[in-house]
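Our consortium's second objective concerns turning raw sequence data into structural hypotheses that experimental partners can test. To show how far this objective has progressed, the report includes one record in full. It was chosen at random from the queue rather than selected for favorable results. The single chain below, 416 residues long, was entered without modification.
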Amino acid sequence: MAGNRRVVVTGLGLLSPVGNDAETTWKALLAGESGVGPITLFDASQHAARIAAEVKGFDPLHWVEKKDVKKIDRFIQFAIAAADAALKDSGLVIDAGNDEQVGVYIGSGIGGFATIEREHTALMTGGPRRVSPFFIPAAIGNLASGWVSIRSGAKGPNSCTATACTSGAHAIGDSFRIIQRGDADVMIAGGSEAAITPLAVGGFAAMRALSTRNDDPKTASRPFDKDRDGFVIGEGSGILILEEYELAKARGAKIYCEVVGYGMSGDAYHITAPREDGDGARRVMLKTIKDAGVQPDAVGYVNCHGTSTPVGDPQEVKAIKAVFGEHARKGLAISSTKSMTGHLLGAAGGFEAGVTALALRDQVLPPTTNQFTPDPDCDLDVVPNVSRPVDLRYALSNSFGFGGTNGALLFKRFEA
């Protein structure tokens, strides 16, 4: 039955503030390295928040011809790079024999903000004739999927989620369903974001959502710590190759882990704040675990949304306690890699799904760094400051977004 098809992860492409490929990124995370520093992408001297987690040393010319660079926003460039890396890692060859069964599903919460700002300036200073004919296709969210499809030759389902900071997780979860039901055999799935721009940073700061620890950027992102003061905006991309298990097995693909559960929920509460009782997060985790057909105490690790905001972190902890009960304190570890990468917004779910897959592959948990003063409202095992070897079978990845949109993914250590 198509709906019972197993789905495995056979390729990873991670582009992040701590590394421009998956293995470099993973090594940095396990070492507790921070990717946060002063903003260099624009003059932030007048901004309240002057720090960010930027991707370093990224050269789009490694992937895109010079004539095309200005036609493609940075978030699309990131997606192209991560997807290329994921496909290469998977060893999958897309050709006339399988191209209609390979799809692309890449989410972005914001899309081409830098392009929008640049073209608006051109309009205001030079009039309509100064607006680039490439403006729209450079800025709209689904062009990350579009470009990856065109470059790879993938002719299967082609879509994009725009569910704020849950975009990447929803793209992977929806792709999982697409393969389960037989509408594709392979999906190139994840998220991409590049919103470290004057307007985005100014907008998040106006909401008092960002950390203003400008004098100490490397410790500014402090999920679960008592003295956290907001998130650090980040950028990057996380792309996974999801593949039907029998196909992957037949071609001898290496397998990172298996995708076994996916859930979605809505808070129906507030445009930006999570519910105070964490109910939306609780329900999405329970749905995901139920979808996999396992009990909560089978889960050994949660890669948390954990943004380092005063409101969000304790609500997620409250939800975890409600889902896991005594297991939350005895046997469950949680951590937030946003302590090192900042918040990748619409790319976060894709990136953190990749991190969770690596944790299962290597049987080691990435830490939550910058743990200085314990918060009594976040009193779980947050894997403080140092990575940890572990015997891990099931791992959950949480993503929550503005508008009360929630997604969670459950991964399992691969067992043939």
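The partners drew two points from this record. The domain at 8-250 is CATH 3.40.47.10 (Peroxisomal Thiolase; Chain A, domain 1). Residues 74-90 form the longest helix (17 residues). Both points have been shared with the crystallography group to help prioritize constructs.
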